[in-house]
Amino acid sequence: MIAHSGEGADDRERTGRLVTRRSVIGGVVGAGMLEMLSWGAFHQNEAMADELPAGPHHGAGDRVMFTAEAPHVYTRAQWNARAPRRPAKVRNRAPDHIIVHHTATANSNDRSLAHAFALSRAIQNIHMRKNHWDDTGQQLTISRGGIVMEGRNRSLRAIRAGDLVVGAQVLHHNQHTIGIENEGTYTSRAVPGSLWRSLTEVCVWLCRMYNLDPASAIVGHRDYNNTSCPGDALYARLPALRRSVADRMESAPSPQPSPSTGDNGDDSWLPLFPSLGDLG
């Protein structure tokens, strides 16, 4: 999903140049993921198998897996994020849809915490250095090892408060949606079990926090924009994801959002952020 959608109400870049459909879909396809694919850390594993044996739900050294009952999201500080150019804008409202993306990067065999953190840094570096955006675009990122990480600054705090950080992950709809970036390319390859389990748990968590109905709230990027994201294979599993999330939500009470901190920022302009998943 590194080539998602535009940020900002007028869909213009920092230079003021109008962003056209052609420029979004053609000129910035992959939003730098073509460059990411050439990086050794991502390129060397692109032919690996779709699934590996799942590890324990909690464990493997300092790696902690995500559960909706005790959500563990690795923070920006933990993956050593750069400071954003400006604080993200926070809306005192819940999103109405959860957007599922894929990164359209190599299907890495590396399930480690170090790899997951490197993924988040690589995404942020491309968005900020190459495309000159304020920060990472998506609110949450999940590695193929099922490791869940905060994306755009202020996202984790906003979710816990029942608020929405305005991201840059679906053109014309960033003001009311929250995006989950899933590492890998799922045009035909199956989603790894570790990633799938975390994606399910993250959706349960978000639906509980925001009081969303998974049957209508969980959608793919292509449901809003002209893109192949999140890939045919992952998109075909969204009905199963909605059912799994609904089943999990029935098994435990919903958590209550934390009191808002009032830390809403003053970001009056948000730059273009196309999605990672347009390479398929």
CATH topology: Lysozyme-like
Listing every helix as H and every strand as E from the N terminus to the C terminus, the arrangement reads EHHHEEHEEHEEHHEHHE
Write the CATH architecture name. Answer: 3-Layer(aba) Sandwich
Query: Tally the helices: what do you get?
Result: 9
> Multimeric state of these chains?
single chain
- The first-level CATH class name: Alpha Beta
Cα-atom radius of gyration: 17 Å
Shape: globular
Helix content: 25-40%
Q: What is the count of structural domains?
A: 1
SSE-based structural type: alpha/beta
CATH superfamily: Peptidoglycan recognition protein-like
Uncertain residue ranges: 3-60, 260-280
Across the major sheet, the strand order is 5-4-7-3-8
Largest sheet: 5 strands, mixed
Tally of DSSP β-strands: 9
- Amount of beta strand: 5-15%
Distance between the termini: 10 Å
Q: If you average the pLDDT, what whole number results? A: 77
Keywords:
280 residues, alpha/beta, Lysozyme-like, five-stranded mixed beta sheet, 9 helices, 9 strands, 11% strand, disordered N terminus, disordered C terminus
Structure write-up:
It is a single chain. The chain has 280 residues and is of the alpha/beta class. It has a single domain (3-48, 72-279), classed as Lysozyme-like (3-Layer(aba) Sandwich). Helices cover 29% and strands 11% of the residues. It has nine helices and nine strands. It has helices at residues 21-27, 33-38, 40-43, 113-130, 155-161, 193-210, 214-217, 232-236, 238-249; strands spanning 3-5, 90-91, 97-102, 140-142, 148-150, 164-165, 177-182, 218-220, 273-275. The chain has a five-stranded mixed β-sheet, with helices on both faces. A two-stranded antiparallel ribbon has the order 1-9. A hairpin with a 5-residue loop joins strand 4 and strand 5 (148-150). Helix 6 crosses helix 9 (238-249). It is globular. Residues 3-60 and 260-280 have low confidence and may be disordered.
